[in-house]
Amino acid sequence: MATLIEISNVTKSYGAQELLKEASIALGDEQKIGFIGRNGAGKSTLLRILLEEETVDSGQVIRHPNLMIGYLRQHDPFEPGESALEFLMRDSGQPEWKCGEVAGEFELKGRFLNGPVKELSGGWQTRVKLASLLLHEPNFLMLDEPTNFLDLRTQLLLEDFLKHYRGACLVVSHDRSFLKAICTQTLELKRGKLTLFNGNVDQYLENQEILKERDARTNATVMAKRRQLETFIAKNKAGANTASQARSKEKQLARLTLTEIEGAESTVNIVIPQTEKRQGTALTCDDLAIGYPDLRVAEKITLEIEHGSRAAIVGDNGQGKTTFLRTIAGSLKALEGDLKWGYHCKIACYAQHVYTSLPDDQTIRDYLEMESAPGTTNQQILNVAGSFLFKEQALDKPIKVLSGGERARLCLAGILLGNYSILILDEPGNHLDVETVEALGDALVKFQGTVIFTSHDRHFMGKVATDVIEVVNGSVKAYEGDYESYLYRVKKEVADGHREQHQESVARQEQKSSKKREKGIGGKIKNARKELSAIERKIAQLDEKKNKINEQFLKATSSQEAQEHHAEMQPLIEEIAELESRWMELYEILEQ
């Protein structure tokens, strides 16, 4: 195995914060490595060093002469009006047949390949970027949180690509299922040191627990021996006949040292205040319709969620998961039907529209104390705050200076400290590291109340969910099976070329519409189809703008900046809703 990159005694600091401390590692051409570490540990900094976008304070980074790095770009590399195929040919310099062949591996066909690439959704644009990576024929891929905001089907497609990729991979992700599926080794950055383990992330974390338990047992034995020696020394050091023995025992005592259990002081342990365990129905939806005044997202929703259940809301992006959560949380009014919570349900909601409106005039400490359940101790607040990267010295920081990601973590910390019987959580793990996501999952499993949540993290979903509710094709209904069976079904659909079947269905619809045109209603159909196509392009453009503004919002460093981005997003949301309403009208015309 050839070494592609060798990091030798590298040190990198920002002010007083030492992210890398004489770190060393060799990365070979056949390795697929999951890169983990706490938020703020320095993972992104190391990636920038490998990309030669950052310099090191000391040490060396030695690159093989044949090293070709492929990095999944987060910025928009597309030119106005160009198709995915045109972009692939321009970016890679490869012929059309080669670009089409590689694009096919990501199901980029038809309008997805030949239509304007800027009008594709973020998930499809990610597929185009991955195809571009492959066309450059890199031998070392670096991916930084590649699954964020990708729906399950696109995640599975990316996973399949990486499994069969012949080069080396370094993947930063908080999604344990994704890392476990593709990575055979685990690299952890902790306290400035790099540790490479020959096993997947589950095996690595399990091994860490075994080592901690072993070190704890060793320390217990050492402490017992210490007490024994101290007792002997105290009894015999003053005696004329035993003083020499006592001095010998003192030397033995000096040689006894405790093993430092790394990370023990920073172990994440989230404890949610317990609510009264209740029986019966927590939520009832009867013939419910959800959406906006001019756009129905789903209708005829009839379901029940029982007290104590942990219901996972699943479905592809854009189907309406967040709309459903906002409706049951009360921030979006139902269009029709009945929605009823059980008696004395106390509901907390974690979602983007919630953490964008935190009180700017309070400090982190003020907010957490205000949100905490009665009887919560100061130490409990400090523990939960620390779990979400708010150290004690930072608790007096004003909320108005927090970034979007910090606000999200603060909001979630406040909810978990409160005394709620119902938790509604929309993507709670997006701003957390592997260890904190795992701790959150453990806490939710122990919680006696009801949890209704959605997440793109398969490990988290499988760990927490007791029930599955699927949002698909304008309906919201209980899924007959657990999360693992839902995951199996989606995997099978992807493996069987589910999207090709969908395209065949579209082709049949085209034929059906063609027959209608032959019967004398072609003018109406033709105009409707033309307008429908224009609306789809416009929605894609607006959605792209909205996603970019949302990214800027999450990176905002001040309250004023965050509010400006939020205000900028609102007219886009309203315009998209209007266009989607018209899209539904046209779709009904074509279905007649």
N-to-C CA distance: 62 Å
Q: In what order do the strands lie side by side in the largest sheet?
A: 5-6-7-3-8-9
Please count the beta strands (DSSP E, at least 2 residues each). Answer: 18
From the spread of the alpha carbons, the general shape counts as globular
Q: Determine the CATH topology of the largest domain.
A: Rossmann fold
Structural class: alpha/beta
Strand content: 15-25%
Helix content: 40-55%
Let me know the CATH homologous superfamily of the largest domain.
P-loop containing nucleotide triphosphate hydrolases
* Biggest sheet features: 6 strands, mixed
Which regions have little confidence, pLDDT < 50, spanning 5+ residues? Answer: 516-520
CATH class of the largest domain, anyone?
Alpha Beta
InterPro entries: AAA+_ATPase, ABC_tran_C, ABC_tran_Xtn, ABC_transporter-like_ATP-bd, ABC_transporter-like_CS, ABCF_ATPase, P-loop_NTPase
Keywords: ATP-binding, Nucleotide-binding
Organism: Gimesia aquarii
Biased composition (Basic and acidic residues): 498-513
